[in-house]
Write a structure and sequence with these properties.
Order of helices and strands: HEEEEHEEHEHHHHEHHEEEEH
Structural class: alpha+beta
Helix content: 25-40%
Number of helices: 10
CATH class of the largest domain: Alpha Beta
Largest sheet: 9 strands, mixed
Distance between the termini: 41 Å
Number of strands: 12
Length: 324
């Protein structure tokens, strides 16, 4: 080549000097917090077989994956998300374990997105996964760990928004909405695009009260009292149980004096389809994106052969670093 390459590809960047020093210090502090909470480090490969992140798993869409081939023609993928990798690993090495397992991690994820100008395609994440515990206490413990981590870094003004995907799934099941339409609605509701939600609902053969209940999801956010009030208008047990679960989690957090950091949003539906219950995101001043994301994924490990409940979260280190 006649010219030297001096620039990085779109979506990645060099980090050096004081910025790198601060980032490494932040990572050490976050991992130290998790270690004190009983989490043990785990390290999975930066790339895996495509099947670990396939549509059947319910993770990042295929067109957002960095894909390549090995010498045998197998399709490989740069890791877009830690959770499926850890689920595969735990299923392999802890197949017979029934006691709660706690794992923490730190590393890069790679997402081939082009719809957000300036967004990094390689980001550093630090996270925790709690396996073999399906209780509301485990849900509350994960939220408490996130709060402890953010406060220990000096953040005081932040909010954790909590939802439960089972509420929406219960409505779809009650009204006989197909899996395909459920996925469409889920994506639109996640993006708060209720004009398109209404358009799709008008094409579906379901009763008007059902359409109204799904559209109302966009207004179901705020305090636990506002979420509790929706139970009276819901007929299916799955959705009612979802609200009850949130009430239990809130009660545990309130008893620990942590309720000021949480609010609720039944319209919070993650793009990751493997989530089965509580989902949450943490926000603070200085960024419009979540600095922490997480949720419960009780069916994911079964995809790899181990039936086990699980919940976890990931801190997006690059965003948190910018805020701090």
């Amino acid at each position: 080549m006649d010219k030297k390459i001096l620039h990085t590809p779109e979506g990645v960047r060099d980090i050096y000097g004081d910025e790198l020093k601060k980032k490494l210090e932040l990572q050490v502090r976050l991992l130290d917090i998790l270690h004190k909470k009983g989490y043990e480090d785990i390290n999975t490969p930066s790339f895996e077989f495509f099947d670990v992140f396939s549509s059947d798993i319910g993770t990042t869409p295929s067109n957002e994956l960095f894909k390549f081939f090995d010498k045998d023609g197998n399709t490989l993928v740069l890791r877009p998300d830690f959770t499926p990798s850890i689920a595969r690993c735990v299923a392999k090495y802890h197949m017979d374990a029934s006691d709660p397992l706690k794992f923490s991690y730190c590393g890069s994820t790679f997402t081939n997105t082009s719809d957000y100008q300036g967004r990094l395609k390689e980001t550093t994440q630090i996270g925790a996964e709690l396996i073999n515990d399906d209780s509301s206490q485990a849900d509350a413990d994960i939220i408490e760990t996130v709060i402890s981590a953010l406060k220990s870094l000096g953040l005081e003004e932040f909010q954790i928004t909590i939802g439960n995907v089972e509420y929406f799934k219960g409505l779809c099941n009650e009204y006989g909405i197909s899996n395909e339409d459920e996925m469409k609605l889920r994506k639109l509701i996640s993006n708060k695009n209720f004009f398109m939600v209404k358009e799709i609902l008008e094409e579906l053969d379901i009763k008007e009260s059902g359409k109204e209940n799904i559209l109302k999801i966009g207004d179901m956010f705020g305090s636990i009292d506002e979420i509790e009030s929706t139970r009276a208008n819901i007929n299916n047990e799955r959705s009612k149980e979802a609200i009850l679960r949130l009430e239990e989690v809130y009660g545990i957090l309130k008893n620990k004096g942590l309720d000021e950091y949480v609010c609720f949003d039944l319209g919070m539906l993650s793009k990751y389809n493997y989530y089965t219950g509580m989902v949450f995101s943490a926000y603070t001043y200085g960024t419009g994106d979540a600095i922490v994301k997480g949720g419960r994924y009780d069916n994911l490990l079964e995809k790899f052969g181990k039936k086990a409940a699980a919940i976890g979260f990931a801190v997006v280190v690059d965003r948190l670093l910018n805020v701090i």
